[in-house]
Structure formats: C-alpha cells, structure tokens
C-alpha cells in the first residue's frame, strides 16, 4: 500500500473519532458501531473524492466490523479509482471472517463494478476459498472490467490440478476486445504457466485471425515476460 497523506477534511474527521473515546475513569469506551457506520456512509457520500479517500483510509486504520457492509456497498458505486483502491485496502484490513461473506455475495451483484471490485478485493484478501466462487460467468462476463478482474483473480487461486481446465476456459476469450483487454488475458496466461501452453499453441492454428494473432502474442510474452505485448497484423 502506498503512503497516503494523513490530513483529512472536516467532512471525514468525525469518522471513527469515537474509537479513541475514554470514559470518566480513563478506560476505553465501546464505540457505537451503528453510529460509526452511519458516519462512514455519510463521509463516503461526500462529493469531494479527497474526503471519500480520507474516510476510507480511516475505516482501514481503525477497522470495525460494522463498517464492512458500508465499504462493500460503496465499492459498487464509487466513481474514483483511487478511492476504490482505498476501499479495497480498508476491507483487507478487516478480519476475513467479517469481509469474505459480503465480498463473495457481491460477486453476484447486478452492477458490473460491484462484481469487478469484489473480484479485485478477493485477490487482495488472498483466501483460497475465492476459487470456488469464480464462475464461468465471471470469466466470460460481457463487461470487460469484470472479465479482466476474473482472469487475474482466477489464475491466482486455481489449484494445480484444475489449471489445464482453466486454460481451456480462458482460451475462449482469445481475440476479445482492444489491446488492453488482450494484454490482460496474455498476462493471465503468463501467470498460469505451462498449463496454458498447449491451448495457446492450438489457438495459433485457429480459423479466426484475431485468435491466432492473440495466441501468438501471448506465447511470445510467455517466453519473455519483460517483452512488449504486440499483435501482428
């Protein structure tokens, strides 16, 4: 996680300040979790993205289980990339037993961003249980960002004995999308390793020119991961 400024604006200063409240005898008081979650929701709804970033930062700095539903819900609609990254970081800072059920549920969101952010967050949480919940529907989602997140996450969790089957599934996406989408799939194949080589070699003989070009480019980058990804005309 890159370092972020600790300065916050007035709109998010109230978030989690009760985490430091003391009773008259000097002992720590239990914060009102419902009130804190409400305060967080308000802060995350501010129009200024810096205020939302600061609110998410505080939510991760002082993890509270009641905040998890608020953070997951905001992932679905947050328009700013940096804030979405901070929301994911904040969720990772909470115990997996608090985050996983809700993040896994978000995989079924009707909002594409909700699904893609859930996949991204699962990759950061790192719990292998995620593999059981990544479906062909995610891998072949019509939304490019969901599919790309699914490819990246799937290759990170796939058991060794299922890697070849995953390679077959990923090969169905060869030729899809623009250069960025195709580069994402190529990187997923590189992460998958030798299990992907047979299907890529077979794809170079496809009757579809775009599939052949994508497969050949992927094999090149698999041989030299530091090389530039490009497609032959």
TrEMBL record:
Residues 1-36 are annotated as: Disordered. Residues 1-21 have a biased composition (Polar residues). InterPro entries: ARM-like (IPR011989), ARM-type_fold (IPR016024). This is HEAT repeat protein. It comes from Leucobacter luti.
């Amino acid at each position: 996680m890159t370092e972020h400024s600790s300065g916050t604006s007035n709109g998010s200063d109230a978030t989690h300040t009760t985490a430091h409240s003391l009773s008259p005898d000097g002992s720590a008081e239990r914060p009102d979790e419902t009130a804190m979650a409400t305060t967080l929701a308000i802060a995350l709804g501010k129009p200024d993205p810096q205020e939302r970033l600061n609110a998410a930062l505080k939510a991760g700095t002082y993890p509270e289980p009641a905040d998890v539903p608020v953070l997951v819900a905001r992932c679905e609609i947050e328009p700013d990339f940096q804030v979405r990254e901070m929301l994911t970081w904040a969720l990772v800072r909470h115990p997996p037993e608090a985050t996983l059920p809700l993040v896994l549920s978000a995989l079924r969101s009707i909002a594409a961003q909700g699904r893609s952010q859930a996949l991204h967050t699962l990759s950061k949480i790192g719990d292998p249980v995620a593999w059981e919940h990544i479906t062909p529907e995610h891998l072949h989602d019509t939304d490019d960002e969901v599919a790309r997140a699914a490819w990246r996450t799937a290759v990170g969790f796939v058991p060794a004995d299922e890697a070849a089957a995953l390679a077959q599934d990923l090969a169905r996406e060869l030729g899809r999308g623009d250069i960025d989408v195709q580069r994402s799939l190529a990187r997923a194949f590189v992460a998958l390793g030798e299990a992907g080589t047979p299907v890529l070699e077979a794809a170079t003989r496809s009757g579809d020119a775009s599939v052949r070009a994508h497969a050949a480019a992927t094999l090149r980058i698999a041989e030299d991961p530091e090389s530039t990804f490009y497609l032959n005309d």
